[in-house]
Request: fold
Amino acid sequence: MKSEHDKTMPCPCQSGKQYEVCCRPFHLGEKPDTALQLMRSRFAAYALCMPDYIIHTTHPASPQFCHEAKEWAQKIAEFSSHIEFKGLEILGFQESGSFATVTFVAHLMQDQKDVSFTEKSYFEKVKGKWLYRSGQLSQGRVPNLMTTGQLPLLPLAYYGHPINNLQRILRQQ
Ligand SMILES: [Zn+2]
Reply:
């Protein structure tokens, strides 16, 4: 996959590093060492509208996985183009063997409205490659999402069919 974005710009994952030395290598095919790196690079891919990267780093058993790759890519692109990616705040990161969780706040704006959300993402390493498995979402900034298991989960404009996705996520738990 090629990236035509300015290499010297600040990385959209908000690391403070240049894109070139942060998430770009992953977007070009390098495997992230940690699930946290994968999570950051997926956030950057959403911000830069790179649906292929999202698709290739999603676990086939993920509730978000869609076999209609074209349609899926279109939905991701739509999401990316309607959202302003304001910031990324990592609240927690745990890795144990082939499993990892990252809890983060995605600071997002849509039509001048704050559509930020907190997500606890689950990752699994398959054949040496970290993949996104699923996510527990809550609207707004919810710093205690990590420790409290039973927060009300609200639908979010995540992939175009928020309610369906949410129900699928809930069914998995
Ligand atoms: Zn980055």
Observations:
- The longest strand covers residues 84-96.
- The chain is about 30% helix and 30% strand.
